[in-house]
Amino acid sequence: MPEKHFWNIRARNYDRLYWTKDAGYIDKIIDVAGFTRNDLVLDIGTGTGAMARSISPHVRHVVGMDFSDSMLKRGRWDGISMVKWDITDSLFHNHLFDKIVGRMVFHHITDNLDRAFLRCYDLLKSQGKLIIAEGVPPGEDEDIVGWYAEMFKHKETRRTFTKSLLVRYFVKNGFKDVRVYKYKMRRFNINNWLVNSGLHKAKQTLILNMHRDAPEKVKAAYRMTFENGTCFVDTDNLIIIGNKG
Fold first, then answer.
1. 22-69: pLDDT as tens digits
2. How many independent structural domains does the chain possess?
3. 152 domain residue, yes or no
4. CATH number, domain at 127?
């Protein structure tokens, strides 16, 4: 599916996805990011702006960036600057931002991931911070990671990150003092996720059945349950922060 068409479909029900509004996840990012009232912040992959709106009261100003018109048109941008652009392309002057945030976006960068990290590095002021929040498999056991990657192949083209891989990208691209924080999203509703992700019904059924038929170690790692046909899992999410030295 062409990328533009993919995001046009995703945008229709994006704000109905429970994870996009998970207050605990957003609060955890804000808590560990160390925002200050003087910060100029870039929120990349801003989507409809949920993260940018949450950051805005804590900082001087937020700029939301996304390459999807469909997402941006559905956002609310009062008090927030918004720009249609891709982080892998040049736009802003270097050394401009105090902090850059990317929540659930870097796994969509399937080409030029190092370039994206380096663009963030260049855009940050000295001692600036890159804050990336990503979902990861519930453990680094190769069977669990393999099942996770295979399941997501049926949903979209994306990367599968683990903690060690993400940290490696930070360090490889010059970031120092890399810190990792965990957030577990309890009772993540798989049915809600599938219905509102723009997938054809056959794909939704296939992925739901993959959960139902998952190996016991996967089910145990996820604390997976089925209740009246609805699948719930506890998902692992990482917030990784690196400093520009």
1. 889 999 999 999 999 999 999 999 988 999 999 999 999 999 999 887
2. 1
3. no
4. 3.40.50.150
Which residue did the predictor score with more confidence, 43 or 13?
43
Q: How far apart are CA 49 and CA 58, in angstroms?
A: 15
pTM: 0.90
125 CB contacts (<8 Å, ≥6 apart)?
A: 95, 96, 97, 98, 244
Residues 178 and 131 sit within 8 Å (Cβ to Cβ): no
**How many CA atoms are closer than 13 Å to the CA of 157, on its beta-carbon side?**
8
Q: What is the model's pLDDT at position 75?
A: 82
CA angle 142, 148, 149 (to 5 degrees): 90
- Asked whether residue 166 is assigned to any structural domain, the reply reads yes
Does 178 fall in a domain? Answer: yes
Q: 64 lies in which domain range?
A: 3-145+157-187+236-244
**Chain mean position to CA 65:** 14
Per residue in 154-177, pLDDT tens?
998 899 999 999 999 999 999 999
Query: Per the domain annotation, does 137 fall within a domain?
Result: yes
Query: Both tokens of residue 56?
Result: 């805005």
Residue 139 pLDDT > 60: yes
- In whole angstroms, give the CA distance from residue 209 to residue 223: 16
